[in-house]
Amino acid sequence: MGVSPDSTAIEVEGLWKIFGPTAEKVLRCDDRFLEPAALREKTGCTAAVRDVSFTVRPGEVFVVMGLSGSGKSTLVRCLTRLIEPSAGVIRIGGEDVGQASPARLRDLRRHRVSMVFQHFGLLPHRRVIDNVGYGLEIQGVGRAARHARAGEILSLVGLDGHADAYPDQLSGGMQQRVGLARALAVDPEVMLFDEPFSALDPLIRRDMQAEVIRLHREVGKTMVFITHDLSEALKLGERIAIMRAGSIVQLGTPEELVGAPADDYVADFVRDVPRSHVLTLRWICRPPEPGEPLDGPELPASTVIKDAVAVASATSRPIRVVDEGEPAGVVDRVDLLTFLSGQDTDQQAVQATT
Amino acid sequence: MSATAVGTRSGLRVPGWAAPAGIAVLFVAGYLVFRGAGTLPHDDDAPQFLAITDLREWVDDNKNASPVFLYFINYIRLFVGAIFVALQSALHGLGWPGLIGLMAGLGWLAGGWRIGLLGAAGFASFGVLGVWESSVDTLALVGTAVLLSLVIGLPLGVWAGRSPRLRRALNPVLDIMQIMPTFAYLAPMVLFFQIGAPAGAIATMIYAIPPAIRITALAIEQVSPVAVEASASLGATSWQTLRKVHLPLARSTMTLAVNQTIMMALSMVVIANLISAPGLGSDIIRGLSRQNVGIMLPAGLAIVVMAVVLDRTTMAAAHRRAHERTARWRWPVAAGLVAGGVALTYALPPAFPGQWVLPMGGPVNDAVRWAEVNWYDATEAIKNVTSEALLNPLQGLLTSAPWWLVAAAVLLLAWWSSGIRPALTALGCLLAIALLGLWEHSMVTLTMVVVAVLAVLVIGLVLGVAAARSARYSAVQRPLLDAAQTMPSFVYLLPALALFGPTKFTAIFASVIYAAPPVIRLVEQGIRAVPHPVVEAALSAGSTPGQLLRKVQLPMARQAILLAANQGIVLTLAMVVLGALVGGGALGYDVVSGFSQRTDFGMGFAAGVAIVLLGIMLDRITQGADRRSSPHQRNSV
Ligand SMILES: Nc1ncnc2c1ncn2[C@@H]1O[C@H](COP(=O)(O)OP(=O)(O)OP(=O)(O)O)[C@@H](O)[C@H]1O
Ligand SMILES: [Mg+2]
Question: For the ABC transporter domain, which residue ranges apply (chain A) (predicted)?
Fold first, then answer.
């Protein structure tokens, strides 16, 4: 879908990060393509990010997911050079981050990109309001202005009345709201989240995910969201990149990942997802057979299959699927049943193997 | 190890103890054959000593011609001297009510009214003990040394905390500084800075600076990396992160660094009196040289009180919660206390009123005499048994054995316990001691250290195990250990001298009670650190408490016990040397006479070096044992 270069928020091209004493040397020879274990064996270096490229559109929620140790944190830290990348190009809002001088880089971090951390990273000796105002303080904003802005943001994240508390007096969920507020306070274009909710318990995590979705609607920031939790990824991500051993193995919409996993690794990831909750009619519609009646109910192609079942059960006619006004095909009861039963056999297979 | 090798090669079954036993037999035979030959008797006028004495004369003569002295060392001396004088006159200028008020105010700020009261009462007691003037001098000296230590140590510590490379470079230097017995600093100080307050302050500073650097570095390192990263992610410069994240988060641990620095300085400052720095130490040294406990006791008590007051005050400051809501009248009250004290200075006599001074000398000496008379049998028996059964035979053995036999024994012992490199270092130290011309005295000191360490270990194991097994006993013992560990080493000489009079045994006794508390504590911690599931498993298998101790707890606490032995050696060595002042003789005595008699300077200097070498040697013999199984363990502090 023709993304013009000036409308990308983040652009990453051929990014590498190799940890270790001989990183430079490894990068220059073919060793870098070795499997991680073999590489460590041979050179003592760890390739945490390997030849990663992607772009993020303005206002998009881009999710990176993968197992522990797959290089997600390293990748996201490379974006603002909290970890110095070994090779590759990173552009944020068109600016080449790799070439930025220390002052430009600070400027980028101060005004344009901010980050939310898994373990919050709050300063225990400061009150909540001063934690939220920290980024502004760093920029040299005066105390009154800082507190005014921090107060605003605190009510945005639902922490009214906690301004004078200290972080250790708050629950984990509230602490992460402070972390979120701190990142929001500087009004960045891009927000980076490194597994922000994995230290929280499931109920609070759900609240916080809803919070992020709400904030995204309200403030419309570009977000890069790291997680190892698939349901979180599916809930938040417009596009999801799946990482394995430092490389992106598949990048696509939730639907694409669930419907057409690129390899066994991805398939494994998405196996337990109820496909009918994620896939849409676009995935199963077919051209109408000659003589098939075309007067059944009409549904958009983006309808989730689960939701089409109710419609299909009310009529014996095939459902007409339309994509942005254009007819895309039809789906009848048999198609739906076949899909659902296929899913069933899939799940039985899973159960049989486990 | 070698036993099994031999066994497999010859096809014979050689039991594991055969090789050590064989070696032991060899040594005994060697001793019996060569006994008395190859000894290195002591000579007060050894050429090595004379050469060093001449060197000092030469330095003294050429001091004012050398640019190093003219433009550098002399300025340091003047600068440090100026700080001392400024501090001293400021403290005296406050007057005794003013100073008491100041301490009360600081105590109040640090820990509320309890600590404030402790500070006021503690400082007032200096006057009551009749040692106000010397106490203020000691305070000024401690203040100067601590100030210098912190001004140099804190920034260096912060830097080291952020730069692993600097940390690695500093570590061995600090290691050496910490195992050097306090005495060893003094001779070079005299060489460079002459005798007096500046030399005393600098020696004290060198002694007190390692904890300032180490603990600060640790404090900075421990700052949550996530907070640091968060700060960087918001675009903070590294200076901003240092000021707004590192320093506030490290604050309370850094206060601990200040606390440790003060305590180290306090224990050294008395020793600095040996090179004519003013203060309480001179009373103690006078008392020691006349064996007059009545003179020493007030000064000793004043030092203990000073240590307790400064310790509790800084500890209270360290433990204040990082964001405790500060009462609005915190500062006004502090200011009021200080102002009140200063106002009283004008109303009250300038010197501490004589009628408030508690006369102690007479009654104390009477008590000591009473104890001497009435406990004579008991103390004499302990002293004689230890001397006859342990001390004299061992000393006889070490001084009458040929030097090469002793060296070979040390080499093998260190090799067995720590490996070849430490063993070679230990051997090198021993040979250097021989070359310094101090073989015989070193062997005598070594005897004392070995006997003291054995006693310390026995006491440490018994009390440590007792504390680990009984929570109630541990609760009783802990405050005693705390108190004991805040006391400067000198203080331990007093009861020893009062009980046993000036002998070698007195020095050993003092060092045992000085070194025992940390050893007890380490043993207790080691046993307590044995994981609970392991203990539970052993109990569920039906172990008796004795079996549990022997088969599970002690073996698993091996690391901690070896560390305890190592600590015990370092502390004992420092104290045994100090024991020269209560009749310990040998190397310690050489050092002391080196300060008091110009002609003995060389011997004193060499003895200081020999003590350091002895320390390194013992450290290498024991340290390896706990390094071997856990190379990371010692990196922590
Ligand atoms: N500073 C470092 N030095 C050496 N290796 C590192 C460093 N940081 C990360 N690594 C290695 O890089 C790889 C990727 O680490 P990273 O933290 O990016 O993984 P992750 O996907 O974020 O995992 P998690 O889900 O556990 O946070 C790991 O193998 C890790 O051991
Ligand atoms: Mg991570």
Answer: 27-270
Q: Are residues B302 and B450 in the same domain?
A: no
Distance CA B515, CA B523 (A): 13
Residue-range definition of the domain harbouring residue B454: 375-390+440-602
Compute, in angstroms, the gap from residue A163 CA to the centroid of ligand 2: 29
- Of residues B630 and B220, the one with the higher pLDDT is B220
For residues B265 and B136, state if they share a domain.
yes
**pLDDT for residue A243 is more than 90:** yes
User: How many Å lie between the alpha carbon of B247 and the closest alpha carbon of chain A?
Assistant: 11
Q: B39 phi and psi, to 5 degrees?
A: -85, 160
Q: Tell me how far the alpha carbon of residue B543 is from its chain's centroid.
A: 40
Reduced to 3 states (helix: H, G, I; strand: E, B; else coil), residue A222 is strand
Question: Chain A: which residues have CB within 8 Å of chain B?
Answer: 80, 82, 105-111, 114-115, 117-127, 134-135, 137-139, 166, 179, 182, 186
The answer to whether residue B453 sits within a structural domain is yes
Least confident of A42-46, A230-234, B358-362, B603-607: B358-362
* CB-based contact B613:B433 (threshold 8 Å): yes
Cross-chain Cβ contact B234/A109 below 8 Å = yes
Quote the number of domains for chain B.
2
Residue B458 lies in a domain: yes
pLDDT higher than 90, residue A28: no
Tell me the nearest-neighbour CA distance from B225 into chain A, angstroms. Answer: 8
Between chains, do A110 and B235 touch, taking CB under 8 Å as contact? yes
Residues B99 and B241 in one domain: yes
Same domain, B162 and B303: yes
Is A48 close to ligand 1, i.e. is its CB under 6 Å away? yes
3-state secondary structure (DSSP) of residue B441: helix
Q: What's the DSSP call for residue B580?
A: G
Q: Are residues B307 and B342 in the same domain?
A: yes
Closest CA to ligand 1's atom 16: A71
Ligand 1, atom 6: nearest CA belongs to which residue? A19
Nearest CA, atom 7, ligand 1: A19
Answer yes or no: are the C-beta atoms of B577 and B445 closer than 8 Å: yes
When mean pLDDT is compared over A318-327, B141-150, B319-328, B548-557, the highest value belongs to: B141-150
* Alpha-carbon span A71 to A12, nearest angstrom: 15
Residue B225 covered by a domain: yes
The answer to whether A10 and A91 have CB atoms below 8 angstroms apart is yes
pLDDT above 60 (res B145): yes
Whether residue B346 is found in the same domain as residue B382 = no
Let me know whether B450 and B364 are in one domain: no
CATH class of A276-352: alpha beta
Whether this model's ipTM surpasses 0.85 comes out as: no
Contacts of A163 in chain B (CB under 8 A): none
Do B113 and B153 share a domain, yes or no? yes
Chain B residue whose CA is closest to A133: B234
Q: How far apart are CA B147 and CA B138, in angstroms?
A: 14
Distance CA B104, CA B123 (A): 9
Residue B7 inside a domain? The answer is no
Q: Where are the domains of chain A?
A: 58-84+102-273, 276-352
Topology of domain A58-84+102-273, per CATH? Rossmann fold (3.40.50)
CATH of the domain at B284: 1.10.3720.10
Counting from 1 in the atom list of ligand 1, the atom nearest the Cα of A20 is 4
Q: Which residue has the higher pLDDT, B574 or B78?
A: B78
Q: What is the DSSP string of A109-160?
A: HHHTEEEE-TT----TTS-HHHHHTHHHHHHT--HHHHHHHHHHHHHHTT-T
**pLDDT of A354 above 60:** no
- Ligand 1 pocket test, pick from A22, A35, A70, A78 with the greatest ligand atom count within 8 Å of Cβ, gives A70
Say if the Cβ atoms of B244 and A106 lie within 8 Å: no
Considering the entire predicted model, what is its pTM? 0.77
* Cβ-defined contact of B249 to A108 (cutoff 8 Å): no
